[in-house]
Specification:
By secondary structure, this protein is mainly beta. The chain contains 4 helices and 13 strands. The N and C termini lie far apart (72 Å).
């Protein structure tokens, strides 16, 4: 190959290289567009059974940094005062009648719904997953994500991201075997104020639970700061004191 031809081929390749998608950067932007790094919010979880019956929960949630989350159950009355805490891959459930936190796992569900504890106590996607590939499609960016450790609820995710808003539209969650565990669908983009514009509704269904559906509705999402002690086992009985 002549030197001139080699230089020409290199020049033609530059635009393609420059246009390559930085998947890790996209994922970090998705995290921040979904929620501030430190915030509080209210969520309603609705579990719809195959017979059409429903069970609803209301949670007050606080998050700090990339991997600390705590949620307090407000409704139903039978669950009021329960609290869940996540720091990194570690999760606990506090039940007032028991009087001490007990360990829970990411694949369990404190509500018994299709949403598991990892969904309810979600931390930054970029804290749990590495981007394996990123490709541009007609209306979205498709990120293929791989769990950083074996403690993560899903081994792989396929995340379709809105190109303009840089918000997730659909996420498929897979086990290490390649089995599709569930699909998450983000809907109803809403302006929460304070520069936060994100989906207010998250729906999920699973081929493992045919006829069942779970919905998560967000409200009152806003930036907030909390001391580190809030995200400790000793503070769990006092979480309800933080509600304004």
């Amino acid at each position: 190959m002549s030197k001139l031809l080699w230089l020409l081929l290199c020049a033609l390749a530059l635009p393609a290289a420059a246009a390559a998608i930085d998947g890790a950067q996209v994922l970090r932007k998705v995290d921040r567009n979904l929620e501030p790094e430190s915030y509080e919010s209210y969520r309603k979880l609705i579990d719809i059974q195959s017979d059409g019956s429903r069970k609803e929960y209301v949670l007050y949630t606080m998050k700090k940094g990339r991997d600390k989350v705590v949620a307090l159950f407000l409704l139903p009355p039978s669950d009021k005062g329960r609290a869940t805490l996540r720091t990194g891959d570690n999760m606990w459930l506090y039940i007032p009648d028991v009087g001490r936190p007990v360990r829970i796992t990411s694949l369990q569900s404190v509500t018994g719904s299709i949403f598991n504890n990892a969904d309810i106590l979600r931390i930054d996607y970029s804290a749990e997953y590495d981007v394996e590939t990123a490709e541009e499609q007609k209306d979205a960016l498709l990120l293929s994500l791989k769990a950083k450790t074996g403690e993560v609820a899903y081994d792989k995710l396929k995340m379709w991201v809105d190109k303009q808003a840089l918000l997730p539209v659909t996420i498929e969650c897979y086990a290490a075997s390649g089995l599709l565990i569930k699909t998450l669908r983000f809907k109803d983009v809403k302006d929460f104020g304070g520069g936060i514009r994100r989906p207010a509704t998250l729906e999920t269904d699973s081929p493992l639970y045919k006829g069942y559906k779970s919905v998560m509705l967000w409200s009152g999402l806003k930036k907030a700061t909390f001391p580190d002690e809030v995200f400790t086992l000793n503070y769990m009985p006092r979480i309800q004191e933080l509600r304004k």
